[in-house]
Amino acid sequence: MDSNKDFLHRQLIRLGDMMGDGLHHEPDGKWIPREYKKIARALGLIPKHKKNTKGINEFMKKAIQKHRCQKCDETLKQTRSGSLRATCTGCGAKYQLGKRVRK
Prior knowledge:
The protein is mostly helical. The chain has helices at 2-20, 31-42, 53-66; strands at residues 76-78, 85-88, 94-96. Strand 1 (76-78) and strand 2 (85-88) form a beta hairpin. The two termini are 35 Å apart. The relative contact order is 0.11. The mean pLDDT is 91.
């Protein structure tokens, strides 16, 4: 476990040195920043993406009350917590009631 972490740290330093030399700006150096970010995430140096589950669920409660199925005019139900999709309780048609905006 510890040796794997040491290996990842050495690899991160090596990739950082390559970026410092400007190799990631070369035409064949596009892999360097991707690999750097992947390793930093594996080491826990970059925080994982946080999901706004509570906010999404509140939005979906309001959206489900406003919308009805376009095919059979039945009510909609959220497919799962944190999801922006809803299914019709009558015919099972699926709807996307919102989209995520990334900052």
